[in-house]
Amino acid sequence: MQQLRRFLQLNQRELAGELNSRQQTVSEWETGKYRPRGPSARLLSLIAEEAGFYEAIAAGGSGERTATRASGAARRRRPPRPER
Q: Which of 2, 1, 18 is closest to 76 using CA atoms?
């Protein structure tokens, strides 16, 4: 879990926001207290696949990007929510 978060170059609070979850929940997943289930597990899997995380692991990498954290517009942004 932590490898994926670092690969995405997010801190726990940012990943929690992307998942509409709490930072404490992300922390508990990372420490092994709990595991993602149901929709959270599926969403994390889709995020990892879309970001190329599995390919990075398969290529023998640690799953962590070597570049420093991007800032501003260079970072991945959440797509706009559809209007209601």
A: 18
Spatial CA neighbour of 36 closest among 66, 51, 16: 16
* Helices of type H across 32-80: 38-51, 53-58
Cβ atoms of 26 and 16 closer than 8 Å: yes
pTM equals 0.69
16 vs 1, 33, 62, CA distance in Å? Answer: 12, 16, 22
Fold classification of 2-74 is 434 Repressor (Amino-terminal Domain) (1.10.260)
Model pLDDT for residues 11-68, shown as the tens digit of each residue: 999 999 999 999 999 999 999 999 999 999 999 999 999 999 999 999 987 665 654 4
Domain boundaries, the chain: 2-74
